[in-house]
Design a protein that fits this description.
By secondary structure, this protein is α+β, with helices and mostly antiparallel strands. About 65% of the residues lie in helices and about 10% in strands. It has eleven helices and five strands. A five-stranded mixed beta sheet has the order 1-2-3-5-4, covered by helices on one side. Strand 4 (about 380-385) and strand 5 (about 390-400) form a beta hairpin. About 25% of the residues are buried.
Length: about 400
């Protein structure tokens, strides 16, 4: 059976303040009423009743049925003695009856407890009505006036107890719904973290397998050639130098293949198509504009050819940043794309103003992780985060390797 969480310390403090506040208001009502029509009993009698009736509300969330039983007993005794304050006491009784529906975890018990209390109160009010009707003062005021007052009391009690019943059940249902939503949110967050972790693990496993196949041949060849060069160094310097040249060439080949491997692993295509580079950025921007985005593209500095690895990195970073801007900033946000040709570096920047009414959905973070891996593979740096004047910024900077560089 679903239950709402137990009350915390803050809720208990609120109940203490509620009980104190109702007790104070009840005593104030007694004092004001006493000035209008003093009773034949000492004033401390109604004052005591005004304090005792809301006092059990301190525990209304933990023991709601017991609280209402105590309140009902106090209410009936004070009514029989003629010392019942009729204003704040109604609110106190309402809060107690409401708390059964809002806090009792056993819903069957909560239902029948409220039925029993309502029947008990109705029976007591009926006996009071009969006694009031037989009172000699009724004849003085008139039977019609008495029944009018009785009907008003019946309507008020039905409204009070009915509202407390309905609102209590709705409070219970709302609390359960909040718990379900909170549990679903926690599960989604946990699944996102798990998916991101699995994606990283699978990617690293792929890279490790490919690296083994690519590097093993070159490293083993380098080891053999270095050993030969060491043995021939004092015997045949030319052969030793030739072996060392082979070691150098193997090292260059290994580096080239590693770079090509990084490009292949991070590429979204199957390798059959041409590798995207900076020259395809205008086409990418036009495609995004056709989808409804507002984008400006600008080049700063003297454009020059860069290596395919750098060009692919720049293209993929802009592609991912535009996708994120469309998802999070909205399709009508203003997005600025800038490519800066620095003396020894290439910088790509994508910034949005954050004014496009995006969905605000949070992904698993694989896109940013992919950008970081691309940039780190080329020895660069990536900056991702909110802008000081609003919106979001993605800035990647890498060494600008010339076209054809190893």
């Amino acid at each position: 059976m679903p239950v709402r969480p137990a009350p915390d310390a803050r809720s208990l403090r609120a109940d203490v303040l509620l009980a104190v506040g109702l007790g104070f208001v009840g005593c104030l009502m007694v004092a004001l009423s006493w000035n209008l029509e003093p009773l034949e009993v000492p004033i401390w009698h109604p004052l005591l009743a005004a304090v005792l009736l809301p006092l059990p509300l301190v525990l209304r969330r933990r023991f709601p049925i017991i609280v209402v039983i105590c309140q009902t007993a106090i209410y009936m005794v004070a009514g029989e003695l003629g010392v019942l304050e009729m204003y704040a006491s109604q609110v106190a009784l309402f809060m107690g009856f409401y708390s059964i529906g809002a806090w009792d975890a056993n819903r069957t018990r909560a239902h029948w407890a409220r039925v029993a209390i309502a029947i008990l109160m109705a029976g007591w009010l009926a006996t009071s009505a009969v006694r009031g009707f037989l009172d000699p003062e009724t004849g003085e005021r008139g039977v019609s006036a008495y029944f009018a007052l009785l009907i008003i009391q019946i309507i008020i009690n039905i409204a009070y107890f009915g509202a407390a019943w309905v609102f209590g059940d709705r409070a219970w249902a709302s609390a359960l719904e909040r718990e379900r939503l909170s549990a679903a949110h926690d599960e989604i967050v946990a699944q996102q973290a798990q998916l991101a972790e699995q994606a990283v693990s699978l990617e690293r496993l792929r890279i490790a397998r490919e690296l083994h196949d690519v590097v093993a041949h070159h490293v083993s060849a380098m080891g053999v050639q270095a050993g030969a060069a060491r043995r021939m160094l004092t015997v045949d310097a030319d052969r030793a130098a030739d072996a060392l040249r082979h070691v150098e060439q193997s090292a260059r080949d290994a580096i080239g293949e590693l770079r090509a491997l990084v490009v292949t692993l991070r590429s979204d295509d199957d390798g059959a198509a041409a590798t995207p580079d900076l020259e395809l950025l205008p086409e990418l921007v036009e495609q995004a504009r056709a989808a409804g985005q507002r984008i400006s593209l600008a080049a700063v500095g003297e454009p020059r050819q860069v290596s395919p690895m750098v060009g692919l990195m720049a293209f993929r970073v802009v592609q991912e940043a535009l996708t994120n801007a469309r998802k999070h900033a909205g399709p009508v946000a203003q997005v600025d794309v800038r490519v800066r040709y620095l003396p020894d570096e290439l910088e790509v920047e994508v910034a949005d103003d954050g004014h496009g009414a995006g969905t605000g959905e949070q992904g698993a973070g694989a896109g940013v992780l992919g950008m970081r891996e691309r940039v780190a593979a080329l020895g660069g740096s990536l900056e991702v985060g909110p802008r000081s004047r609003g919106g979001w910024l993605v800035r990647a900077r890498v060494p600008a390797l010339a076209a054809g560089a190893d």
